[in-house]
Design goal:
Elements lengths: L1 H10 L23 H7 L9 E18 L2 E12 L8 E6 L15 E8 L5 E8 L2 H46 L4 H21 L3 H27 L8 H6 L9 H34 L5 H30 L1 H9 L4 H6 L1 H35 L3 H10 L1
Antiparallel strand pairs: 1-2, 1-4, 2-3, 4-5
Helix pairs in contact: 1-3, 3-4, 4-5, 4-7, 5-7, 5-11, 7-8, 7-11, 8-11
């Protein structure tokens, strides 16, 4: 366990850095040359370096409604105190709403924001608000989550948080850098699942027979889900480039990504995250039923366990569909306000991608129930494992 903690804490240290290369402009070269030669030999202008700072709105200097073509919008002239970097403590004036925008944002005194800083060609300093600083709110939310998990879950809650940290460490230290380096996203997702699933399952649920059975059931179900994802992504002709962030990704960093494989990797990792509940719950049901009736046959045990599993399937699938629906509300509004035929809207890659992601993930959950149930029934009836053995193993670990 100590080794895992050391590795996890080491992996969580990320170093980000970057620099921009600027070139100095040279002026008045070959003034007597032709326009063509002038255009070729004209040196590049110096590229202003952009820096980012945090600041707090200390005063609203001006605020009024301004009429634009699209309607009225609030204009603000703000006094912002910079709270970090070379300009720490300095006050700058920043305009908000000076141009028409689809989304009106109104700032108040006390709001913390991020500022971009650059200079124009004349050397004048320019500050712009890029976004709110949301770290404080997110920190409160995260601490509330951790506190409730520890208070209600006690030891199991603490181990679950540890497994969560390890999962994120593996994703940010191994998965993302490997994909960024040009490695096959599907292969990277599979390799990461081989590490993440055992670690998170054992930490969250203990070193028990039922945990091992759940791990095996999850691996089998995940492999089938991955094959289904590959088949249907190709069948529906998805390219993986439906979202803006996917296309934007191709234009930065100098790495050419296989967006289709990136989509498949996302489906595999997403499904892996929700299978935990299904496989562990089904295995626990089998062990509980076997503990009540030791002489039960494989067929009877499977039949009784799968009845509970069917209820689990309906609730989990419904939950998964609602989660995807909630995350895709703007997308669903296309169906309400678009005059195009319904089947054409379904064929939009942006829509089809979410449908494939949702249905393949749901199928993965459905097949995980009978696979894990059958595996657990076979193990407990063949090797006569009871809950007393489970408690003894869990106690020693």
């Amino acid at each position: 366990m100590s080794k895992i903690l050391i590795i996890a804490s080491t992996l969580c240290i990320l170093i980000f850095g970057g620099s921009l290369i600027n070139t100095k402009a040279q002026e008045n070269l070959f003034e007597e040359s032709t326009s063509v030669i002038d255009e070729v030999l004209q040196p590049e202008a110096e590229i202003p370096q952009t820096e980012y700072f945090k600041g707090t709105v200390t005063e609203i200097l001006e605020e009024e409604l301004v009429e634009y073509i699209d309607g009225e919008q609030m204009y603000q002239r703000l006094l912002i105190t910079i709270t970090n970097g070379d300009f720490k403590g300095e006050k700058v004036e920043v305009e908000n709403g000076s141009t028409s925008s689809l989304q009106e944002i109104i700032y108040e005194v006390g709001d913390t924001v991020y500022l971009s800083y650059t200079r124009d060609q004349n050397g004048k300093a320019l500050f712009f608000i890029t976004d709110f600083d949301r770290t404080n709110g997110l920190a409160v939310l995260f601490l509330s989550f951790v506190l409730l998990t520890l208070v209600i879950g006690f030891k199991r809650g603490a181990l679950s948080i540890l497994s969560l940290i390890i999962s994120f460490a593996i994703i940010f230290i191994f998965v993302l850098p490997q994909i960024q380096a040009g490695k096959d996203p599907v292969l990277v997702a599979i390799l990461s699942s081989i590490v993440i699933i055992p670690i998170t399952f054992y930490l969250s649920h203990g070193f028990q027979f039922k945990t091992t059975i759940s791990i095996v059931g999850t691996f089998i179900s995940l492999v089938i889900t991955g094959l289904l994802a590959i088949y249907f992504v190709n069948l529906v002709n998805l390219t993986g480039g439906a979202s803006e962030e996917a296309l934007f990704l191709q234009n930065i960093g100098g790495t050419v990504y296989n967006l289709k494989d990136l989509l498949l990797a996302g489906i595999i990792i997403g499904t892996m995250g929700v299978m935990d509940d299904v496989t562990v719950s089904q295995t626990s049901i089998v062990f509980q039923l076997y503990d009540l009736k030791k002489k039960i046959t494989f067929g009877e045990l499977f039949s009784r366990s799968i009845k509970v599993g069917k209820d689990h399937i309906s609730s989990m699938v419904n939950t998964l569909v609602l989660v995807y629906t909630g995350a895709s509300m703007p997308l669903l509004l296309l169906f309400m306000n678009n005059p195009r035929p319904f089947e054409e809207l379904l064929s939009y890659e942006l829509v089809a991608t979410e449908i494939v992601r949702m249905l393949v993930g749901s199928i993965g959950l459905i097949i995980a129930v009978p696979i894990t149930t059958a595996l657990a029934c076979y193990v407990v009836t063949k090797y006569k494992i009871n809950l007393g053995d489970e408690r003894e193993i869990d106690h020693h670990h």
